[in-house]
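During the no-cost extension, the postdoctoral fellow (Dr. R.K.) reprocessed legacy sequence entries with the updated structure-token encoder. One reprocessed record is reproduced below for audit purposes.
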Amino acid sequence: MNFADFVKGIATLSWLVVVGMVVLAVVRASRGRPTRNLSSLIVGGLVVAVALTVVSAGLVFVQPEERGIVISPYDPQGYRTEALGPGLHWIIPGEAVRLYSISRQTYTMSVAASEGDVYGDDSIRARTKDGQEVYIDASVIYAINPDRVVQLHIDWQDRYQAEVVRPLTRGIIRDIASQYGVEEIVSTKRAELEERITSELALKLGENDLLLVDFVLRDIHFSEEYAAAVEQKQIAEQQALQAQFVVEQRRQEAEQLRQTAQGQADAAVIAAQGEAQAIIIRAQAQAEAWNLLAQVLRENPELLTYEYIQRLAPNVQVMYLPSDTPLVLPLPNP
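Re-encoded structure tokens follow.
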């Protein structure tokens, strides 16, 4: 309870005391008892009650989140040009104060019946530039401009939410949404759409003594027919992607088999080339060996006889040959 309410309570209590004393005086007078002292108390109580009533009628306490508009019959305009700020104020009896909250307020428009400020489907129906119909859920967080509360009272009083916030928001959303295609609104340019709505709405609310705190694009949904078409398109795209994946998988498997076969073929070629090279090398080595052996025999013909004898069994002392068989090796000359 603030001080103004406390004084009003005291004034009310004083009037009850005065009424009680008057009733007591009447009862005492009816019984023939003296009422002189009681009459003085009644007069004093009446003066105090009137004084407290006058004082309490002029006291106004404004909360920190409020501003007060003074409606004055003593002012040529009918109101004071300056709003009352937070705290205790005195007004002339006969004047009245209209309080406005400057706290943040939220106005929601939603398809859900219980979410919005208007019961039922209150989403914004808009048509895109490609002719599709979309339904948009949105919330506007705003506040009264504390420096313009007097003008707001003059222009709108307490109708600013129903006659300013709601129609401006719905009109701006419809206008800007009509400049985009449905695919852009849903995906690629949703953030741009929200940013443009916020900028335009802040400008228009400012012209009507309100401050935009934030604009929230809650949801975008479609008609049942379009939603079904989108779902079918997504299904088809998923199937196409799946088929593409299968084709790519088969291609990779075929490529893997091809590379395996190519590797095996390359390995066989390399092996054959290695074998052929080895054969060539062996043949060349053997030919060189025979050439070298032939040269040695030409230079040392006795070597062949020596090798022949060396290869005979070590216990052979006499060897018989047929009479008509020539000697295989020539005997060395003495």
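The chain has a mean pLDDT of 81. The chain has three domains: 3-100, 105-222, 239-310. The remaining legacy entries will be reprocessed before the final report is submitted.
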